[in-house]
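[09:14] KT: can someone run the structure on this one? pasting the chain below
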Amino acid sequence: MPEGHSVHRIARQFERNFVGQRVVVTSPQGRFSDGAALLNNLELEEAWAVGKQLFMRFSGDHWLRVHLGIYGAWDFSGTIHADATIASANGRMGQTNQRGTVFDAAGENSLSSIGAPRKTRMRMAEEQHESELEQTTQFPPEPIGAVRVRLLTETVCADLRGPTACEVLTAEQVDAVLARLGPDPQRDSSDEAGQKFVDAVVKKNTPIGLLLMDQSVVAGIGNVYRAEMLFRAHIDPYRPGKKITTDEAWGLWRDWIYLLDIGVQTGQMMTIDGLEGEAWRKAMANRADRHWVYKREGLPCLKCGTHIRLDEMANRKLYWCPSCQT
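[09:31] RB: done, structure tokens below
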């Protein structure tokens, strides 16, 4: 499932390419026809994310809410201006990373397809030069597969496939959704937001490995960040929230601020610190080289050598080191 950093990057794509323009909204698949009719030819006025949910406000105070879930993804085509963290569409990073972009082999930091992995026309064309794309890509492209909703301007097209939720809401309904979500440091990294997270953790008897995945406790953390944050904090994922100290809870909150910002800036969930040169490039290109425990079951811990365990917690895979995290 796409985690919080991906959805923030999607929101930035819409900010850069769609906000301020009238948008043609259709549902090629037909399942969103009524919602598309409400939004069609309205101006997109803002786009932002909270956790794993994307909110877009159209003129007339109509809101589009999208939750990608496990299978959802947005595919962008046309003249794409890179999101606000990147200097230009050729992938040269801005001031947050002067070493240049290294594209992940699985397309995790793609600018043209964000969400669940899939081989799309745009993703397959990523290594082509811009001039080649212009010569070979029809605009707007014919819809591929079950496109729930298409947003189209004169220059950019965004296709949504496979979301868990895609609906038009009123402002009051948006507020109701937001009230059920925990804090997201990309929206609010204040001490007040942090205190809300800490209070939610330390009062519960629920294992911390479940609390971090509870979107009402903290918004945006998924399976990867859960495993990596707990390893970085040396915390047993089965320890109840009530037995997490206040200092430990604040440490988790600050680490989430730090890791989420890296994810938004680079498009990748980089959780190993201090990598330089070839080690950094290798980690940016291959997920296996940028995580401590995630997907490393049966392999020796990179710190202590103990074999990484793979358990199941609430029907989700849990990766952890039984030696470091005690």
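[09:33] KT: thanks! Residues 24 and 152 are 5 Å apart (CA to CA).
[09:34] RB: yep, looked fine to me
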